[in-house]
Specification:
The chain is α+β, with helices and mostly antiparallel strands. The protein contains three helices and three strands.
Length: about 80
């Protein structure tokens, strides 16, 4: 097992917000260790392996890669009827 980091420490290393790391845990399967919701830790080696696996899946998939953040479209209200 590698170095255990708090959610905040993991977010700092990834240059993301803690809420993004929590969302990745809940929705994307980022590995986490801990007994309670308040005491969760990420194994840095597992985080790196998870990121590598996701990158590999994106670059070797036939399916189109969706953007990680929604794109905003500006609508010109002067031409819209």
């Amino acid at each position: 097992m590698g170095e255990l980091l708090t959610i905040d420490e993991t977010a700092e290393r990834l240059r993301k917000t803690p809420s993004t790391v929590r969302r990745w845990i809940a929705q994307r399967g980022l590995p986490v260790h801990g007994v309670t919701r308040l005491s969760r830790y990420c194994d840095w080696d597992e985080v790196l392996a998870w990121l590598d696996a996701r990158q590999h899946a994106r670059t070797h998939s036939d399916a189109p890669v969706l953007p990680s953040t929604p794109r905003l479209h500006v609508i010109d209200s002067t031409t819209r009827r």
